[in-house]
């Protein structure tokens, strides 16, 4: 029997609750790709929060690639990600209940993603190569422009798609869903106060993806596989550093 059956209750921030509510609408299909969220004033009224809290939540969704802030008369917050299937969501919720760790996520990604890029390098078309390159370029531009990383998430979704293996695609969807949840649990505002470390993490992600795309584009599957192994270790170390920074702030 567990000697400590009762665990401390984590009090969620209002912005985290808003993120979960909007993500639920996206995942349930009530908000689809291309749909606009209501104006900020209306969301503030609906959620009964301040504009600061709402904007913090929206920025979290931007960083994790689920919405995009567009300017102009027809601008606003627009849904840009694809919805995970209900099966993926059930697996994700089950894993959450069992309290997965960063190390477990790292081990799973280190097994799956090197194989994934190896297969992609063998099967990818010229048109798909251009799409991968465009995505990595947009990732770099987003970091320079507003520190968001939505294109970085799209990169992994494309790897799954371009493997042309439906099972690998779904597994990659699940791994990405878990990673987004792990990073979101750190509380984005804490990460952003460590601006140099946060920027270092984003830049390392963009640079690593760029190297992998170059090897995929030149049809070098074995080298792409080895580069992904190096990349996963590098990003895991940076993620662990973020985790320590967040724990120190709490």
Structure explained in plain terms:
There is one protein chain. The chain is mostly helical and 250 residues long. It is built from eleven helices and two strands, in the order αααββαααααααα. The longest helix has 29 residues, at 221-249.
- Structural class given helices, strands, pairing? mainly alpha
Q: Biggest β-sheet: count, sense, barrel?
A: 2 strands, antiparallel
Specify the CATH homologous superfamily of the largest domain: GntR ligand-binding domain-like
Number of strands: 2
Secondary structure: helix percent: over 70%
* CATH-defined architecture of the largest domain: Up-down Bundle
The shape is globular
Radius of gyration: 18 Å
Secondary structure: elements and pairs:
Elements: H1 14-27, H2 40-47, H3 51-63, E1 67-70, E2 76-79, H4 86-97, H5 102-123, H6 126-146, H7 150-162, H8 166-185, H9 188-193, H10 195-217, H11 221-249
Helix pairs in contact: 1-3, 4-8, 5-8, 5-10, 5-11, 6-7, 6-10, 7-8, 10-11
């Amino acid at each position: 029997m567990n000697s400590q059956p009762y665990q401390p209750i984590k009090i969620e921030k209002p912005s985290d609750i808003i993120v979960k509510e909007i993500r639920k609408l996206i995942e349930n299909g009530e908000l689809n790709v291309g749909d606009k969220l209501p104006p900020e004033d209306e969301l503030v009224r609906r959620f009964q929060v301040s504009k600061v809290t709402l904007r913090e939540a929206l920025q979290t969704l931007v960083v994790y690639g689920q919405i995009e802030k567009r300017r102009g008369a027809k601008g606003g917050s627009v849904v840009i990600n694809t919805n995970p299937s209900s099966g993926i969501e059930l697996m994700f919720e089950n894993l959450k209940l069992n309290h997965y760790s960063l190390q477990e996520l790292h081990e799973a990604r280190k097994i799956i993603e090197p194989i994934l890029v190896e297969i992609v390098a063998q099967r990818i078309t010229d048109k798909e190569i251009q799409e991968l390159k465009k995505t990595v370029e947009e990732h770099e531009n987003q970091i320079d422009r507003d520190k968001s990383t939505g294109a970085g998430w799209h990169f992994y979704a494309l790897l799954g798609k371009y493997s042309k293996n439906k099972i690998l695609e779904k597994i990659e969807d699940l791994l990405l869903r878990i990673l987004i949840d792990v990073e979101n649990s750190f509380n984005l505002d804490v990460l952003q106060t460590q601006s140099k470390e946060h920027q270092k993490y984003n830049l390392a992600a963009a640079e690593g993806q760029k190297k992998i795309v170059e090897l995929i584009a030149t049809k070098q599957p074995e080298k792409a596989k080895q580069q992904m192994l190096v990349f996963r270790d590098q990003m895991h170390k940076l993620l662990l550093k973020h985790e320590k920074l967040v724990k120190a702030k709490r």
